[in-house]
Design brief:
With 353 residues, the chain is an alpha/beta fold. The protein contains 13 helices and 8 strands. Helix 4 (109-125) runs parallel beside helix 6.
């Protein structure tokens, strides 16, 4: 006898179907509020990414997308570069996306988004678009951002397209076999930066992608993690509301590539911030660098800063750094993190002097 299991009841507003596709009627004028009450979020907002996708258990990328979508202000078109997120959420003929969504190649997510934004402007100018605004949001991994897609991203920023680009950074080409990328940190194991008697993992430091975007002098740049969810949602809404390009660098743990337990993904992201490996900040041309959330707390209370061991000790990709013969490598990594943190403190306008 076959037992048919039913889906669990999900709280929704009275009269609203559990999984409503985000279809906006022409003439929609209202702007969706930014909600931080978790019960209210569950009752009133549908995430852009629905259950049924095939992302790995423990992956932080779908959490990044869901939190970001809770901060959408209204009609939104999502552009998705090739990567883990794309291949696992749209296995033909199915999709887990509840918003208008387009997939493109690794290298051209920002170019596609720029074209969509230009088309929206043209339609508004000729009176063919009845919405007050239609936002364009990109989700792309580190491979499609740091490396393959950087040319298109830089061009989009230079041209000034009104697009929010969200990098979910799992620090390697996880979709194609855990190869090193420009976002892979120094001494991390990957399949193309192995650990052995010759190599101690990747030999180069992580590319400072967010600072590179600051150098473009776009209206808004920020770092975030899904572990600091309220900070992240605020930054997504800010990035959407600015007039022009915005860029958010979101650290996104990968239990397969980082070699950690599925249940501690959020804990690892907390440790990334607590050790100052991944500080939280935002930048605008008017304010410069501003520390946010936990990083501001650490700046005001330096004793809260944790050693880098707390971040690496729970990840198999860094296991070799804990061996006695590699103490010098761990020391070098700590010195690098400390130097980057001190440099940020000098730049941040709200850091204690």
């Amino acid at each position: 006898m076959v037992v048919v299991k039913t889906l669990p009841e999900i709280p929704v507003k009275k009269g609203e179907p559990p999984y409503k596709i985000w279809i906006f009627e022409p003439g929609e004028k209202k702007e969706l509020p930014l909600i931080f009450n978790l019960r209210q979020l569950a009752e009133q907002r549908r995430p852009a990414l629905l259950p049924g996708h095939r992302m790995c258990a423990g992956c932080a990328a779908p959490i990044v997308v869901k939190l970001a979508s809770f901060a959408f202000r209204g009609p939104t078109i999502v552009v998705n570069a090739t990567g883990c997120l794309e291949v696992s959420t749209t296995i033909y003929p199915y999709t887990s996306w509840a918003v208008p969504w387009i997939h493109n190649a690794f290298e051209n997510a920002a170019a596609t988004a720029g074209g969509i934004e230009a088309g929206i402007k043209a339609m508004k100018k000729t009176g063919r678009l009845k919405y007050d605004h239609v936002d364009v949001v990109v989700f792309a991994g580190d491979g499609g951002t740091y490396d393959i897609g950087f040319q298109a991203l830089s061009g989009m920023a230079e041209r000034g397209h009104d697009v929010l680009y969200i990098l979910y950074d799992n620090e390697a080409y996880m979709n194609t076999g855990i190869q090193r990328s420009g976002g892979t940190p120094k001494y991390a194991w990957t399949t193309t930066s192995p650990v052995g008697s010759v190599l101690p993992g990747k030999g180069e430091s992580k590319k400072p992608i967010a600072e590179i975007m600051v150098a473009h002098r776009i209206p808004y740049v920020a770092t975030a993690t899904p572990a600091h969810w309220m900070d992240f949602m605020k930054k997504v809404r800010k990035g959407i509301e600015v007039n022009g390009p915005a860029f958010i660098h979101a650290l996104s743990s990968c239990d397969r590539g980082w070699r950690h337990e599925e249940s501690i993904s959020i804990e690892i992201l907390r440790r990334a911030v607590d050790t100052c490996y991944f500080p939280l900040w935002e930048w605008t041309p008017e304010t410069g660098y501003v520390l946010t959330d936990r990083s501001l707390v650490i700046a005001r209370n330096p004793s809260l800063k944790q050693p880098i061991e707390k971040f690496v000790e729970v990840q198999g990709r860094f296991r070799h750094l804990l061996r006695p013969e590699n103490k010098e490598l761990l020391k070098q990594l700590q010195e690098y993190v400390d130097a980057m943190w001190e440099d940020l403190l000098k730049r941040a306008s709200n850091a204690p002097r």
